[in-house]
Amino acid sequence: MSISDSGHPGDTSQAVAVLDAAGRHRTLSYAYAQLFGYDATSRLAGRRWDRLYTVSGRETLLEEARPAIQRGEAWTGLVGAVLADGTRRTFEVALNPLSDGFIACLVNEPAVESTEDYEQAQVEALAAEFAVTFISLKPGEIDAAILAALEQAATALKAERAALFRFVEDGMVVRPAHTWMATGEREMGGEEFPVTLMPWLKRQLEAGRLLAVSSRADLPEEASRELAQMERDGVQSFVAAPLRYAGALIGYLRFDLMAADAMMSSPQASLVERTAQIFANVLERKRMENQLIASKEAAEEAARIKSSFLANMSHEIRTPLTSIIGFAGLLAEEVETEQEQEYVSLIQDSGTRLMETLNSVLDLAQLEAAGRSVNLSVFDLNQQVEDVVRLLRPLADAKGLTLEAVPSEMPARAEVDHACLLRILNNLIGNAIKFTSKGGVSVEVVADGQQVSIHVRDTGIGIDEAFLPRLFDPFRQESGGLNRQYEGSGLGLTISKRLIDLMGGTIEVTSEKSVGSTFTISFAQVRP
Prior knowledge:
The chain is α+β, with helices and mostly antiparallel strands. The chain has eleven helices and 20 strands. The strands form four sheets. Strands 7, 8, 9, 10, 11, 12 and 13 form a seven-stranded antiparallel sheet that branches. Strands 2-1-6-5-4-3 form a six-stranded antiparallel sheet. Helix 3 (115-134) runs parallel beside helix 7, helix 9 runs parallel beside helix 10 and helix 10 (418-434) runs antiparallel to helix 11. The longest helix has 69 residues, at 266-334.
């Protein structure tokens, strides 16, 4: 429950607000707003605290209280206030410092029933402040925020030391995670110690108990080791609360008091318990986020190693393969019989196909390893499409297909990498021809003043709707296995999409089985 939700009409014990250093309301309770004569907390949220003044009239409240606040001390006094309807009323106010502001508790005179009401209101405000602070922190910000929260809580509890401990190695070792001391020392980590040095305390924490030890004499006989530790450290009393997450004990939060007569009230002890639960949630969130980051880095490293391996293997195979294709070409000029010519042709075709596959693997490896850069220049895409269509027309003619280029009516200028665009168009138009047995392929350029789009349409076999989400995955083909009808490595579309992404463009596909497919690539249009 947030502060702004707490309190009910007529309940002044929850008249609490959290304000920043300039006196602006950060969050406040309904009872607080009601004392000022407002029926909604939103009427005061974000407003400065300029309607309060000291009863003497010599200073504003903030001017009088600021020295104590700056020293980290609480300030209490009577103040006058101008209410929403313009009338004046006197309140008793308690201010408690925060790292970047303060908590204000108002009491409508004549009085509040007990000091415990003040403390309970302060606990509510501080717990709400912690919840708001930790809800949106990044993993790298959590440690500093925990130390700051330990200082705030310890100051409110008048504790000389506050520490957060984690249980590690299956709960057999205690690891200090964060420590704050009234001397100003802050410490991350610390020397680990075995849980056997605190057996009684560990049993109480495992039982889920909040421990409030008001003096050394209160410790039972079985807590002899804990007593020895208190005497060695000069601790007179302490409060400890378990940190539990998903039912498991993951650590504990402890506040130590050194003064002989120091005691914590029930509301103050509850602050320790509530803060411990907030810390438990935050620490587990940090652990899971760090685990995700580590997994992501491991996956990226595995991808880098795989890409490096593929690149090395591609180079090792391509060198002898180039020789095989070259010598097959020389051999074709020497052989005389038709059967020998057929054999040599098979060597050349197979070698060329394998070389294309290796080139695709090498390109993909470079893209995955972020080793491929693009050189962007402005081109008219109408001309680029015409050139590729003219180059691939013999393939369409050989299958009895039509292949046409449809230029845009206006200049279709875009900033692209020339070599990358040619590779993409060759892949898309080549695929359209490969997977079309009758009808034809059209390549239309459309420029609308905002972007230039190239639509590659075919009347081929189409793509099943269930396969479309995986269409651009590497090595993916709708028909797989040894009995597949169409050849190919399954890398053309993957490489095309990644090149398009590098150039800042987009690619989309629509398809209907047995009807055909349309691939659309788009780039921002460059005006003349």
